[in-house]
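User: Show me a protein chain along with its predicted structure.
Assistant: Here is one chain, sequence first, then structure tokens.
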Amino acid sequence: MSAGARILRGIDAVSEASGRLVSLLVYPLVVILSIEVFSRYLFRAPTFFAYDLTYMLYGTIFMVGAPYTLLHEGHIRTDVLYQKFPLRMQGAIDAAIYLFLYFPGMFFFLIAGWNYFHDSWSIGERGSLTFWRPPIYPYKAVIPLTALLLLLQGFSQFFKSLRTAIYGERPHGQ
């Protein structure tokens, strides 16, 4: 196996592992929501923490799960015509989209997300929607982390698309 193939497999392994790891956050999310429902409707005493924790957990699951979804080609695609094209043309289209649309967008997302997190961290930002006011800057760190993971997985997908465009076959596992 070439060094390039090992690098792509390593990137894919990072996306796979981060997706599986973040999926475990579903369990505390369900527990917190269950506590909130029971507390609110059985005891008429809503919790002070459920709102903040659930949006942070769900947001983290959604965002950090995105590279995993990209790896497994689970994002929405309008492919009425695309599926009818030969594999080489599909690969060329995918590679062009990654190069001209995806990478610039993800790079902007990384820079903007980093600035958003950095500003939040520098002032020790706290939530303002409840009296609990948990620190919110750790949650905002998920934004540049997600952008970085998406850029990495995008590189892997880009090179797989190039391979498809050149050789007319999909790499194994795709």
